[in-house]
Design brief:
12% of the residues lie in helices and 57% in strands. The protein has three helices and 20 strands. α2 packs antiparallel against α3. The longest helix has 24 residues.
């Protein structure tokens, strides 16, 4: 029986590899996930599982490309009016953080502009390596054998470069308005192979490159409580669906974030805490974040931050085994999406350097603490900011 099944499957599977070129990123992901050669005699279940896995991977990509936290709206130089001197003076010795907002605002009439560039090479999806050819999408396995005799493996190389342009203006001593424009370049290369009894057959290949403006963010922050040692503020952020959804550069719908901010600053040390909720976009989410910064000199600030998010629509991808409908003693394993609702936790460390006047250079490295979703080993970022 095993020999007959081996001969029939080999004959059906052996064919020239298919390829997908000059298509959108979404098209290539769909092609790689649904172009199947392993025979299971259950087309409807195969298609449903492939589409679920495709949606899970696409959602993970969108989360990392369109809903990541943007750089803080406030500049490194913040000012507070001193009534005794009758002039504005610097309100803090540090230059602030990277993603965790601080309660202080820039000060009335103060303007800040800047940009940052982040590069990420994603290599894991829910802890599974997507680059080394070990990710199983579908397989048939005899229950008395330790490994599948017929399986398909997916290899993905996903890289993004995101440059974000920022600007903010202090409307008054308490109100600050800002905007952020992300420009994203995404490259995806994928290969799918069929491995039967140790023999590998190319099954499918696809690649796509997309670049353009992502979802633009409009932001506002209002300081509720001001104190020499810190303060409390509330902020809002609206992300407009300006990115190309088919190329995974945009979420395709508007998102609104509301954020509460608390800060405590003493001398050259500052602590900041954020908590908020987002509705719309890729997924509804709850966020909590904390950051610490220390001025090690009048020109250099070191920063550490932790960013936590819970996304209601992000699922974990997993292999699910069910009995083969026609072959006794054989299980079919399919890659599918698990229950929705996952937590993401990132940490980062970096520094800001006031090179001259009100010009600040910044650099940091971010990494995933949890393995949920699509992750990269390290995401380095460099940036520039100028206040006037």
């Amino acid at each position: 029986m095993k020999r007959l099944f081996w001969i029939l499957t080999l004959a059906l599977s052996f064919s020239a590899p298919r390829s997908a070129q000059a298509q959108t990123v979404s098209d290539v992901v769909t092609f790689l996930m649904t172009n199947q050669a392993v025979r299971t005699s259950d087309f409807e279940r195969d298609r449903a599982a492939a589409e679920t896995a495709r949606d899970t991977i696409t959602q993970a990509l969108l989360v990392n490309l369109t809903s990541v936290p943007l750089a803080t709206s406030s500049s490194g130089f913040l000012y507070r009016f001193n009534p005794q001197l009758g002039t504005a003076e610097r309100a803090t010795q540090t230059f602030g953080g990277f993603f965790v907002e601080r309660a202080l605002t820039a000060g009335g009439g103060r303007v800040s502009i800047g940009f940052s560039t982040a590069t990420a090479a994603f290599n894991r999806l829910d802890g599974k390596n997507v680059r080394d050819g070990s990710l199983v999408t579908i397989a048939n396995q005899f229950r008395d054998e330790p490994a599948p005799f017929d399986q398909e493996l997916l290899m993905l190389r996903i890289r993004s470069v995101t440059t974000t342009l920022n600007a903010s203006v202090g409307v008054s001593s308490r109100l600050e308005l800002g905007a952020a424009v992300p420009i994203v370049k995404l490259t995806l290369d994928g290969t799918r192979v069929n491995v039967y009894r140790g023999t590998t057959f190319p099954q499918a290949a696809g690649s796509a490159t997309a670049s353009g403006v992502g979802d633009v963010a409009l932001r506002a922050k209002y300081q509720l409580v001001s104190a020499p040692a810190g303060g409390v503020s509330v902020a809002t952020e609206v992300r407009l669906p300006s990115g190309d959804e088919k190329n995974l550069l945009g979420a395709g719908s508007t998102a609104l974030r509301i954020l509460g901010i608390g800060s405590l600053e003493r001398g050259g040390v500052a602590l900041h805490f954020n908590g908020g909720v987002l509705r719309g976009g890729v997924s509804n989410e709850w966020t909590i974040a904390g950051g610490a910064s220390a001025a090690i000199s009048s020109r250099v600030t070191i920063v550490g931050e932790v960013l936590g998010r819970r996304l209601s629509d992000l699922s974990e991808i997993e292999l699910v085994a069910v009995p083969h409908p026609t072959i006794s003693g054989v299980d079919t394993l399919r890659l599918s999406g698990g229950p929705a609702g996952r937590q993401l936790l990132d940490a980062l460390a970096g520094a800001k350097w006031n090179v001259a006047n009100r010009m600040v250079l910044e650099a940091h490295v971010r990494w995933a603490v949890l393995t949920h979703g699509l992750t990269a080993p390290l995401t380095p970022t460099i940036g520039f900011e100028y206040s006037f």
